[in-house]
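Example record

The entry below shows one chain as it appears in the dataset: sequence first, then structure tokens.
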Amino acid sequence: MKKITVMLLAVLLFCVPCMTAFAEAPEQKGATISTTVPATCNVTFISDGGRIEEGENDLDGTEDFDRRSVHTFHIIPHEGKVIDKVLYGGEDVTAQVKDGYFTTPPLVADMVLEVLYKDAGTPVEPVSEPTSEPTKPDTSKPDSSKPDTKPDTSKPEQSGFPDTSTPQSSDNSDTAKTGDTTTAIVFVIATVTAVSAAFIIVLANSRRKERE
């Protein structure tokens, strides 16, 4: 009886903290965190050397746009200028500009659209400076005293001995293939003969046993 009483006390001691924790839970659920999301985002335009348009509106300075909206801006360089680089939010997006048009992703924060220009006809890569004096081709006549080093292309004189310089690989390969085929045929015939003989012997022994 004492053991049962001790066990019940232990269970009660364990359950009381659990019940207290569950009782406090509803009070914690009542806490709320509120944030204010702006309804608009602004885009700052920097275009020294050209202008930026959206539809028929020239964009300059800072403009406000609806949050999550998508816009297509037309970049128009001034005469004698071309687009060199386009930065959107500090990221190089020049590769995304098609025929002077750049489409933004949905606006979720304030951004800066900056367009850099260069003079038309300016090479993309710097050209290395030419040397002061170009190397002149050597037009001097060859020294006749030097021996002629041209390879001897004359045909060798024919002799009574056959030319063995080039191996006859095709004949040897054909002979080897023929020998391999013959060996395979002989092996197959021998295998079939041995199997047939063994089968005949086994059949003869079985019949002899039946007769006995």
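Notes for this example: DSSP finds two helices and nine strands in the chain. The two ends are 91 Å apart (CA to CA).
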